Amino acid sequence: MKLTLRVWRQKNAGAEGAMSTYEVDGIAKDMSFLEMLDTLNESLILSGEDPVAFDHDCREGICGACSLVINGEAHGPERTTTCQLHMRSFSDGDTIDIEPWRASAFPVVKDLVVDRSAFDRIIESGGYITAPTGSAPEAHATAVPKPAADFAFEHAECIGCGACVAACPNGSAMLFTSAKVNHLNVLPQGAPERGSRVLDMVGQMDSEGFGGCTLAGECATACPKGIPLFSITRMNREFVRAARKRG
Amino acid sequence: MTASTPHTASTAYTDYATGAPVVDTKAPQGPIAERWDTRRFEAKLVNPANRRKQTVIVVGTGLAGGAAGATLAEQGYRVVQFCYQDSPRRAHSIAAQGGINAAKNYRNDGDSVHRLFYDTVKGGDFRARESNVHRLAQVSVEIIDQCVAQGVPFAREYGGLLDTRSFGGVQVSRTFYARGQTGQQLLLGAYQALSRQIAAGNVEMHPRTEMLDLIVVDGRARGIVARDLVTGRIGTYFADAVVLASGGYGNVFYLSTNAMNSNATAVWRAHRRGAYFANPCFTQIHPTCIPRTGEHQSKLTLMSESLRNDGRIWVPKAKGDARAPRDIPEDERDYYLERIYPSFGNLVPRDIASRAAKNVCDEGRGVGPGGQGVYLDFADAIARMGRKAVEAKYGNLFDMYARITDEDPYEVPMRIYPAVHYTMGGLWVDYDLQTTVPGLFAIGEANFSDHGANRLGASALMQGLADGYFVLPSTINDYLARNPHKDEVGGDHPEAVAAVRETEERLARLLAVDGDRTPDSFHREIGELMWEYCGMARTDAGLRKALARIPEIREEFWRRIKVPGTGEEFNQSLEKANRIVDYLELAELMCLDALHRAESCGGHFREESQTADGEAARRDEAFSYAAAWEFTGTGEAPALHKEDLVFEYVHPTQRSYA
C-alpha cells in the first residue's frame, strides 16, 4: 500500500507544532499501525530527518503507552489500542491524519508524545488500598462474592492510556478516575477508605485541569478495554454518598 | 578452553580463565525449611529512627521493583526510584497473562511448600540453588495474602473464595489468576502501593529516566548515572544501596515477547562495574507465539500455552506442501509431537515443543509466510466439545489471534512458532540477592536466582513479587545495618565524574558517527545472528561462528550507525542506539557461556549432548554449577567463576517425556 500521512510535528513542549506530510510506500496489510510508523521513521533517519516521536512499549495492547489520534479518533477506527490496529483497516492511497492526545491536562512532550503524569497523581491521591507489606490477613479470611469480584475486575482492566480524555469533547478524566474508584470501592478490602478515596481522587482530578463531564459518552466508546459508561454514574453515587457523610 | 579456529578476535575472547569459585556466604546451613527464618534472625536490623537517613535507589518499577520500592518506603527508608516508561504503571510485568503460583493447597490436592520447591528445582533442570528455591516456595503463600489485601481482583468461585487452575503441566492446581491479565493486576497492585508512598513523600519517583551507569565508590555501589529522556540531561543520584529491578535481556534477540524498550543496559553496566553475570545463555523460548509476518515485524505476541491442552500440533508430511490446511488429508499430516512423544503428546514441556517445531521447519515442512510456523488445530476439539465450549475456554485468545492475523481460528488452524520469552540468567546474587558488588542488589528477572536452566509457567510473577515484597526488604537491612550511612558522596566525587564523562562520551560518539545504518538495522542483525546460533539449538561450530561475527558487527556499528538529533532533547533513536551498544557485548557473553556449557539442560540445548533418542542429555558430572562471569574489558575474555550446586533435598534425575 501507498499512503499519505499527515503527522503532528512539535519539537518540544514549548515549541509551535504543525502538521507535516509524508508519503510511505510498501506498507503491508499485516503491519501494525506502529510498524507502519517504524517504516516511516527508518526512512526519515536515513534521509537525515528527525524521526517521529511516539510512545509505545508492549505492543500487545496492555501497557497503555501508545496514544495516537488517528483520523480524529483516539486509537483509530477500531476499538483497540493503536498497537493492535493493523493496516488492513486502511486502503491503498488513503490519507491518514495522526495527532497526539489533545487535552490541556496532557501537554505535548514532543510530536505525538504527551505527558500523562496527571493520571499518576490521581492514583497517588487515593487510588490504592492501604495494606503495608506483611500486614495482610490470610487471603481466604474474607470471601468476596463473585459478582463483586467480577465487577472489580471489569473496572481494574483500565490501562491508563488516556483515550477517554482524548475522545471527550471536554477533556474530562471521569472514566479513568471512576474505573479505579469502582474497582477498589466495591471490594470489602477497599471499604475503610471508600469515602476519602472518591473525594480525594475527584479533587485531584479537578485540580489537574481536566474538563467537566457532561456524559457525552465518547470516553466509553473510545476505551480499548471497554470500561462502561455507567462507571461514571456509579462514581457519582459514591461521591454524593461520601460528601453527605463528610457533611 | 583451547580454541581450534585460527587466531581472531573471537579466539582471544573464548580463551577465558577460570577464577576462584563463587561462594554464597549468606545461605544458612541446617534443615532447608528453617534457613529463611535463620537468615532473617541472623540479619542485623536498622533502627527505625535511622532508616530515614538511609537512601535506597531502585531501578525499575515492575513487579519486583514496584513491590520493593513500596515496601522499603513503608519500612521508613528514603527511596529514589527510576523507570524509563512515562509511568511506573507500564513496566512489562503488565503483559504476563497466565497466573501466579503459590503453595496454598486450597484445593486440598496434595500441594505443599515442599512440592512447589521440588517442582521448581526439577523444572529448572537442576541448575538452581536449593536454598533460594525453597524460600521462594515458602514466601509464595504470603504473596497471595498481600495481593488480596491490596484489592487485586483474582478470579473467584461462586462461594467467594479464590479460584485456582493447574498450569504448565504440574499435577496440582496452585496457579492463581485474574483472567488472562494476571500480570497487569498484580502490577497495578504494586504500582498503587508505590503511589501511596510517592504521595507520602517517601519515594522520589523519576519516570522517563534511564539508568546508564553504576557509580562504585571504595568498592561499594553508591549511586547511578541516569538520563532524563525528555530533556536529555544526564544526572547523578546517590544512595546507600542500589537495587536493580530492570528485568531480563530477551531483547538481545530483537524479536521477542518483551516490550520494545525492555533492555539490558542497567544490568550490563553493572556487570562492567564488577557484578558477575550468571548463566547468560539460559533463555526460555516459548512454543506458542504468533509467527512473524515479514521483515517489518517489530515484536512477537505470546498466546497462553493452555491452548496446547486441546489443540493438536501438526505440519504436512511432505516438504513444501502449499495446499490450504483443510485440503491436506488426514494421512498426509504429521502430528509430530504425538508421534515422537506418544505419552505426553502435545503437552511436552516448553523447550521440547519449541525445538520440535524448529526441527520440522528446518526440514522444510513449516507453514505460513517463510515456512516459519506449525499448525495448532482445534478442529478435533470443536468436533468433540462443540464450538461453544471451545469459545468459553479460549475465546479471548482466539480473538487476539484473529485480530493480529486476520484469520478465523475456528475455521482455519492457528499458526504458531516459538519466540524468546524470558531469560533465566542474570546478575549473580547470593542468598541475600546481593551481587558481587557490595551494596548492589538484583531482584526479579534481572537476577539469575531461582529458575535454574528453565522456568516453570506462572513462576516469574511469583519470583518478582517474592523478591520485591519479602526477600529484599529483609536482607537489605543487614547490609545497611553493617554499612551505616557515613560519608556523603556527591556529583563531584572522582568516580561519579568519571562515570558521567564515560556516559557523555558514549552518547556523543553515537551522535557523531553519522553513518548510513539505522539503530534498528543493527538490532535486527544481531538478533537474527543470536536466534540462528544461540537460539533453540546450539552447536560448537555455530557458536564459534557467532563469536567471530559479533566483533565484526560491533566494529561496523561504530563506523556506520546513524543517530539523528542531539543528546539534549527527547531522542528515541539515541536511546535505542545506546541500548544496542550493550546488546553487542552481552550477545558475545551469551554465546561464550553457551559454548562453554557443553551439555544440554533446560532451555539450553547443545546438539552435541543428546541421548540416543535425540533428547537433551544433562551432564551433571561436569556442569553441576552456575557459571558466573567477570567482565575484563570489551571483547576481552571474561573470567569464569563457578558456583557448585549441591542437591541435598531433590535428587537430580534425567527428564524423560517419551
From TrEMBL, chain A:
Cofactor(s) needed by this chain: [3Fe-4S] cluster; [2Fe-2S] cluster
InterPro entries the UniProt entry points to: 2Fe-2S_ferredoxin-like_sf (IPR036010), 2Fe-2S_ferredoxin-type (IPR001041), 2Fe2S_fd_BS (IPR006058), 4Fe4S_Fe-S-bd (IPR017896), 4Fe4S_Fe_S_CS (IPR017900), Beta-grasp_dom_sf (IPR012675), Helical_ferredxn (IPR009051), SDH/FRD_Iron-Sulfur (IPR050573)
Keyword flag Iron-sulfur: yes
GO terms of biological process kind: aerobic respiration; respiratory electron transport chain
SUPFAM superfamilies: 2Fe-2S ferredoxin-like, alpha-helical ferredoxin
Gene3D superfamilies for this protein: 3.10.20.30, Alpha-helical ferredoxin
Entry keywords, A to Z: Iron, Iron-sulfur, Metal-binding
Ranges of residues in domain 2Fe-2S ferredoxin-type: 1-102
Record-linked NCBIfam families: PRK07570.1
Record protein name field: Succinate dehydrogenase
Organism of this sequence: Streptomyces chattanoogensis
Taxonomic lineage of the native organism: Bacteria, Bacillati, Actinomycetota, Actinomycetes, Kitasatosporales
TrEMBL record, chain B:
Topology in membrane: Peripheral membrane protein
GO cellular component, one term: plasma membrane
Required co-factors: FAD
Domain of life: Bacteria
InterPro entries (UniProt xref): FAD-dep_OxRdtase_2_FAD-bd (IPR003953), FAD/NAD-bd_sf (IPR036188), Fum_R/Succ_DH_flav-like_C_sf (IPR037099), Fum_Rdtase/Succ_DH_flav-like_C (IPR015939), SdhA/FrdA/AprA (IPR030664), Succ_DH/Fum_Rdt_flav_su (IPR011280), Succ_DH/fumarate_Rdtase_cat_sf (IPR027477)
Subcellular location: Cell membrane
Record-given protein name: succinate dehydrogenase
Gene it is expressed from: sdhA
